[in-house]
Design a protein that fits this description.
Elements (H helix, E strand, L loop, with lengths): L2 H11 L2 H16 L4 H6 L3 H15 L6 H15 L2 H13 L4 H32 L10
Helix pairs in contact: 2-4, 5-6, 5-7
């Protein structure tokens, strides 16, 4: 890495404590609470600041409104089994204007994909064992 970039990063990290406090305050406003993982990550300011900034920009892309971004996050949390994240992001989606029905439908869509993941893998293995060959994949041409 270039020396000038190393200095820029070092200068940035000198403000990690102050940035960390701002991030916790913003998280409370953003989510309605401070997720416990952020409190623990805060013990390592250099990791916390960079990780939190990356997450903030990933969760708030310019191409999506806040409600849509939160509903996508609800789907991701639901399909990955991240129960605590699901609770935090469901509340954030509601704060962003999502309705109960929108959240419920988002969870149902996520569960369909989650179920497909289990069935697709399991039934391929089932087919291979009982039919003695791999399943033909529609996009493997």
């Amino acid at each position: 890495m270039k020396e000038e970039n190393k200095r820029l990063i070092q200068d940035f990290l000198e403000h990690a404590d102050s940035l960390g406090e701002d991030i916790l305050e913003d998280s409370k406003e953003f989510f309605g609470c401070v997720p416990p993982i952020l409190k623990i990550m805060r013990e390592r300011p250099e990791f916390f600041v960079f990780s939190s900034l990356k997450d903030f920009f990933a969760l708030r892309p310019g191409s999506l409104d806040e409600k849509t971004a939160e509903l996508i996050t609800v789907a991701a949390a639901a399909s990955s089994g991240a129960d605590k994240c699901l609770k935090v992001h469901t509340n954030a989606a509601l704060r962003a204007g999502a309705t109960r029905d929108e959240v419920l439908d988002t969870v149902f869509i996520a569960s369909t994909i989650g179920q497909s993941r289990v069935l697709a893998s399991s039934l391929r293995t089932f087919h291979q064992i009982f039919e003695g060959k791999d399943v033909e994949e529609p996009f493997d041409e």
